């Protein structure tokens, strides 16, 4: 799943990238596309509104990391909003909790065909293998004759025990018998697979609620089919209201489901997604990582980590000083050299073309020059051969000084010229940005 949403958003951000600075209109345009992409991916409207509002608020209000292209920072902001919508800021452990007295009961609930029985087998296999737990599987489905047999077969494949089938028992009786056996034979975990229905009805809810009351399970996991989109979200909402769930397992994420259900799930139900089912095989069970899912949705992990790296690498105090000098129109070749050094620290130029403030125009030239890390070093060497006075007042660098600097740094006079030209372009750009800033159009660089 997630392919469609990822592709849609990719298009939006392709358009955003490569711009030097974003106007408020740019942000609004981008957000309109983000909204459409999310709605098409079947994300609930309320969640879409929430995500776009959060992005807008931050894009406009947040202090901009000075050395990043605004478009890149918007991508990071969208990413963070997605992670939050997916429950990324929840404290506590993900996955299934076994922090209770043994035998720990796990109640599996959901609609028929959601993958509930398969998931019960998957969880049993995982707990047995990874956690070395002694697991008992029991099917409470007395409505479909084949259901109990199906679970028994799954148990065999997972090499765990299943509760012996006794015909004619009620779900409650089976549940109690399972817990009893669990206690007597010192099982760590008892997984109770309840009956499903094709759609939600009161009888099903009452049955599940009664079992839950009787065994007070430590986890009540709702299994939903990602392919059913918004229906899965509604199912989850109703199950949660009626019986209360501690977590959600989303199945068939290996299919071409639109990713929206995952995004809505947390916000609409309040219950966290704990696991993902990604195939029919018993080992096709994945932990749910909001950041990884957001990355899969956006497909922009490289840029997100770039922005994170920049935020870490760039010395904010240094950036403040630089900004103050820029404000006064005092950007010097020393500052330029400082920025080259920062870029070097961040791992060279590839993918980092937009790192310098106001670089849009210069960028094309830099690309023409096919700038790489070697080039960075040469530029730094050229600046290194200048006197302090030359660095602070590049206007005084005329032909004879250029020859001296070139000789001193092992560069050609053309290279010195190119560097000076780039620096001038950048300084002009900054002056213009400053003027705009004073008119209040560029607050934070994004608004
Ligand atoms: P239940 O009625 O909710 O117990 O559903 P089942 O566990 O019987 O699953 C119904 C069908 O979905 C079976 O054919 C499973 O193999 C299949 N299934 C379950 N989980 C997944 C999954 O994560 N991915 C895929 N592709 N198929 C799944």
Automatic annotation (TrEMBL):
Residues that hold GTP according to the record: 110-117, 193-197, 251-254
Substrates-to-products reaction catalysed: GTP + H2O = GDP + phosphate + H(+)
Location (main, coarse): membrane
Domain remarks in the Swiss-Prot or TrEMBL record: Composed of three domains: the N-terminal N domain, which is responsible for interactions with the ribosome, the central G domain, which binds GTP, and the C-terminal M domain, which binds the RNA and the signal sequence of the RNC.
Gene3D superfamilies in alphabetical order: P-loop containing nucleotide triphosphate hydrolases (3.40.50.300), Signal recognition particle SRP54, nucleotide-binding domain (1.20.120.140), Signal recognition particle, SRP54 subunit, M-domain (1.10.260.30)
Subcellular compartments: Cell inner membrane; Cytoplasm
SMART domains: AAA, SRP54, SRP54_N
Coiled coil: none
Record protein name field: Signal recognition particle protein
EC code(s) of this entry: 3.6.5.4
Similarity comment text for this entry: Belongs to the GTP-binding SRP family. SRP54 subfamily.
Natural source organism: Sediminicoccus rosea
Function: Involved in targeting and insertion of nascent membrane proteins into the cytoplasmic membrane. Binds to the hydrophobic signal sequence of the ribosome-nascent chain (RNC) as it emerges from the ribosomes. The SRP-RNC complex is then targeted to the cytoplasmic membrane where it interacts with the SRP receptor FtsY. Interaction with FtsY leads to the transfer of the RNC complex to the Sec translocase for insertion into the membrane, the hydrolysis of GTP by both Ffh and FtsY, and the dissociation of the SRP-FtsY complex into the individual components.
UniProt membrane topology term: Peripheral membrane protein
SRP54-type proteins GTP-binding domain: residues covered: 272-285
Quaternary structure annotation from Swiss-Prot or TrEMBL: Part of the signal recognition particle protein translocation system, which is composed of SRP and FtsY. SRP is a ribonucleoprotein composed of Ffh and a 4.5S RNA molecule.
Key words, A-Z: Cytoplasm, GTP-binding, Hydrolase, Nucleotide-binding, Ribonucleoprotein, RNA-binding, Signal recognition particle
